[in-house]
Each structure stands twice: as C-alpha cells, then as structure tokens.
Design a protein that fits this description.
Elements (H helix, E strand, L loop, with lengths): L4 E2 H8 L3 H14 L2 E8 L2 E6 L1 H21 L5 H18 L3 H22 L4
Antiparallel strand pairs: 1-3, 2-3
Helix pairs in contact: 1-2, 4-5
C-alpha cells in the first residue's frame, strides 16, 4: 500500500493530534495490524503494515471503492472519468494532496475497468 511512516507523518496525513495517533498506533501494534520498523531518530520509529494489516487495508479499500461506485451509479462512467481526471490534476498541481491523487488514480482504474467490461464483456 505505502511505505512505512512515523507517528509524526501519520498525524499530518490523518489530521489528528499526537495523543490520538499514539493511542491508535498502540492499539494497532497490539492487534498485530502494524509493526515497529527501523528507528528514525531519538524515540521515533517507522511503522509499517503487517500481512494482517495489508489484508485489512485491502478489505477496506474494496469496500470504499464499492460504496463509491454505488453512490455514483447515476453518473455516466465517462463523466465520472472526466471528473476524476480533473480532480487528479488539481491534487497534483497543488502538491499538497499527492496521497489523494494516488487514490483518485486508483478510482480511475476501477471506473475505467468497469467501462471496458461494459464495452467488451468478459475481459
């Protein structure tokens, strides 16, 4: 999914404070969802998903994509692809939301695959 992150990077990415991030990290460590990686500096470590964490992440992403396809079902696929392309360009141009640009690129693949399957069934 992504490279290992420190707690500080997680705080920034998720937009939550250090205390909440710390509690979440501890809970995920105990549940075997993440593991402590290399020491970055002082008491700072990188954390990365375990195999269990990757499995859970894939389930969550599949659910998100499924729900997104449901709520956008009334929008023609070509319009959805155009919208996603514009959103991706905005995110890349802003240099702030490159994570979101990656997610949008994945959504474009899902919608594009759906369009191809409708045009040429059983691809």
């Amino acid at each position: 999914m992504r490279a290992p992150l420190t707690e500080k990077q997680l705080c920034h990415l998720l937009g939550v404070d250090k205390a909440n991030t710390s509690r979440a990290v501890m809970a995920m460590l105990e549940a075997g969802i993440i593991k402590k990686g290399r020491k970055v500096s002082g008491r700072s470590y990188e954390f990365e998903l375990t195999e269990k964490g990757h499995e859970i992440g894939n389930i969550i992403l599949a659910r998100i994509y499924s729900e997104l396809l449901k709520i956008t079902s009334g929008i023609p696929d070509e319009e959805m692809l155009a919208f996603l392309s514009v959103m991706e360009k905005i995110c890349i141009a802003s240099q702030e939301d490159l994570e979101i640009a990656e997610i949008i690129a994945q959504l474009k693949l899902v919608v594009g695959r759906k369009v191809r399957e409708e045009i040429v069934p059983n691809l």
